[in-house]
Amino acid sequence: MLPASTDVLVIGGGNAGMCAAIAAREAGADVVLLEHANKSMRGGNSRHTRDHRVMHDEPTATMVESYSEEEFWQDLLRVTGGNTNEHLARMMIRKSRELLDWLSARGVRYQQALSGTLSLTRTNAFYLGGGKAVLNAEYLTAERLGVEIFYDSQVTAIDITDGHATSATVVNRGFTYTINARAIVVASGGFQANEQWMKEVWGDAADNFCIRGTPYNRGVVLKDLLSKGADPVGDPSQCHAVAVDARGPRYDGGIVTRLDCVCFSIVVNNLGRRFYDEGEDFWPKRYAIWGRLLAQQPDQIGYAILDSKVLHHFMPSVFPSISADSIEELARKIGIDEQALAHTVSEYNHAVVDGSFDKAVLDNCSTRSLDPPKSHWALKLDTPPYFAYPMKPGITFTYLGLKVNDEARVLFGDGSPSDNVFATGEVMAGNILGQGYCAGTGMTLGSVFGRIAGEHAACCRN
């Protein structure tokens, strides 16, 4: 049976919610955490993660050199195009410096970055065992502290007046309950798994999207709070969207279906035409735009075309590449007009400027008089066999969310902060991620604002 009341009610059992629950409990509050999924699927998108981006002034046990506040900020500013709240972003960056110690003290372990991990050894801390290991550690810590955790529990509505919440309606294993709470922390994610809502934004193109993570992020609590006066933030069409293998599952493919070969290939649509600069910038700063680019192509599909020279420069998909001894044969295998693809490859090869290839820097291997250009890592496709990976948009999470202040309080109506409703994680990511993405920022955001939300929510019990 779910309890009738609690000090702090946390909605959502991913990393953001767990950090909030742990922080609130350590501050002395009674805490109930509701996870929509069953135990085997707990943790939302955090299950599929492997690192977070952290500011650090000197080398750590698992990261090299340093990564300053200003450099982190400039990276974020560049990928968002300025569509970010600088005050909240810089606060997140500064507090990220504390995460290694804070999470380590609660059971999370780290390791050196593996090969093929987007060249993030200086900026990102990698989890030993990945996202599931992080969640296991957080759940064990929360249980040891006395957080009450309930699975198969979907919150359908929050009773709220003028920004003040009193209770939540919960469906647990088919039964409906009401839980009274002195404070509520919303950590229930975006709406990417809500097919109807996605079609309202994207139209029929949404039918061809893969949802990389949990099928439980349907935006029910988000929509409920927006309908009750919570201030929105973010564009509903903006999202963390990457290129995933088109042969992957509709839901929950996770990181193993992601394709990181784009910057070493050319990418064509099903007409055999290139449509964007594959080498525009380092992959960690550009990989999360390729889902949106694919969403804008006919039938929302594309193909990465590469040759034998670059096969070992990236982490491959869980699915094998499609190979052929000629470009024409490869075109037949992937269902593209042979002449169209051969023309695109020939035009590209003719435009390649010889340079010194170096995947670790913005090298001088580029194209000349080609539209779109390839700015870096441009090598001729001339060494058979040739390879292709079919790609679809893979949506990780949406950026429409709840506007918050620096105490993670949800703002209502005229921008007034709630006295007892807080938000963390993907449901408020749009405050910082108006567009674009830097690898590892999502887990950083959830951890930092989870701690903040939990600590301030605990104060509401007095």
Automatic annotation (TrEMBL):
Cofactor(s) the protein requires to work: FAD
Pfam family, one: FAD_binding_2
Molecular functions (GO terms): oxidoreductase activity
Gene3D superfamilies on file: FAD/NAD(P)-binding domain, Succinate dehydrogenase/fumarate reductase flavoprotein, catalytic domain
Keywords attached to this entry: FAD, Flavoprotein, Oxidoreductase
E.C. designation(s): 1.3.5.4
Domain of life: Bacteria
Domain FAD-dependent oxidoreductase 2 FAD-binding: 7-432
Protein name per UniProt: Fumarate reductase flavoprotein subunit
Organism for this UniProt entry: Kolteria novifilia
